[in-house]
């Protein structure tokens, strides 16, 4: 685990009323030293972590020297959602997962940023669950983020997402092999029917009719089980359900009209979890109250997982947003 650092947060009151005497917030920094360069925050997805670049970095194709998120120029901060288990500290796992919401995680991230003396952020980029956290971060501090970039995500949990969270939660609570079985179901949401049909074509592994698709799904389940904790899965899955920037606030347009950030919506045309039509609806509403909102779409048979695969398309979207800043400030790419 490379250069993982930790911030101690004391006496934190959660949105639903519970008091937490202590929360440990771990993070990694890539690129330039803190205080020397513009800051980009990257929020990870459900089974992700802070290791975004370098060896085993889940977004190494996007983050690094001369890449879209350029470590030659930017300071990149990636927090671990508390309870995701990446720091291998059993004491940081969270059993009372229903106490937490996406809003709590966004507030915790801001606590971390203020501790690090980061007052302004060039971009907050969030993928999937991380995008929901990014939305909340922008609402909580509407004048501190220059560019809000939620990818394959949404500002609210739709009924479709909530229904799938329920199924996942039931599997995680009741299965004899919960991580594997929950992953089988979730993986079907992360890809598309066309992907599965084109890749496997009902191919069999043996005469007993074991199919390639079955082997592939189980392989994904067992791999996740080898590196992921049950408590972490329960928490991250639950957080998806709590995503709603309007909860106990004003209406959507009133809230987003206060966000000063440029908002760059990035959807995936065949996403089976955060469906593209919801993002298009958000864009159509946003342009009524904001001029600096932009819609981007990745085309991919891979569906929701395209943010981990379609790096050329992602780079084409991110490069103008991030590199225009460098050009404006006379910095060579």
TrEMBL record:
GO terms for molecular function: homoserine O-acetyltransferase activity. One of its GO terms (biological process) is methionine biosynthetic process. Residues 38-158 form the AB hydrolase-1 domain. It comes from the Bacteria. Keywords: Transferase. InterPro entries: AB_hydrolase_1, AB_hydrolase_fold, HAT_MetX-like. The active site is at 128 (nucleophile), 271, 304. This is Homoserine O-acetyltransferase.
């Amino acid at each position: 685990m490379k250069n993982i650092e930790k911030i101690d947060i004391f006496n934190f009151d959660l949105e639903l009323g519970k008091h937490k005497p202590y929360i440990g917030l771990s993070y990694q920094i890539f690129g330039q030293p803190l205080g020397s360069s513009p800051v980009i925050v990257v929020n990870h997805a459900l089974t992700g972590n802070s290791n975004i670049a370098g060896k085993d970095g889940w977004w190494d194709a996007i983050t690094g020297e001369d890449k879209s998120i350029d470590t030659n120029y930017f300071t990149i901060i990636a927090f671990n959602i508390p309870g995701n288990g990446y720091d291998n500290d059993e004491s940081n796992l969270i059993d009372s997962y229903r106490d937490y919401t996406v809003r709590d995680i966004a507030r915790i991230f801001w606590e971390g940023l203020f501790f690090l003396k980061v007052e302004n952020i060039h971009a907050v980029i969030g993928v999937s669950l991380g995008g929901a956290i990014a939305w909340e971060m922008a609402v909580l501090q509407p004048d501190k983020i220059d560019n809000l970039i939620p990818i394959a995500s949404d500002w609210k949990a739709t009924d479709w997402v909530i229904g799938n969270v329920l199924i996942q939660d039931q599997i995680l609570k009741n299965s004899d092999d919960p991580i594997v079985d929950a992953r089988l179901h979730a993986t079907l949401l992360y890809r598309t029917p066309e992907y599965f049909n084109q890749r496997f074509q009902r191919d069999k592994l043996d005469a007993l009719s074991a199919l390639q698709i079955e082997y592939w799904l189980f392989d994904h389940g067992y791999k996740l089980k080898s590196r992921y904790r049950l408590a972490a899965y329960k928490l991250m899955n639950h957080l998806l359900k709590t995503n709603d920037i309007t909860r106990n606030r004003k209406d959507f347009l009133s809230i987003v009209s206060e966000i000063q950030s440029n908002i760059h919506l990035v959807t995936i045309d065949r996403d089976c979890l955060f469906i593209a039509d919801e993002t298009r609806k958000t864009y159509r509403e946003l342009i009524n109250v904001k001029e600096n909102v932009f819609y981007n779409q990745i085309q991919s048979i891979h569906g929701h997982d395209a943010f981990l695969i379609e790096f050329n398309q992602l780079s084409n979207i991110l490069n103008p947003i991030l590199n225009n800043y460098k050009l404006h400030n006379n910095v060579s790419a």
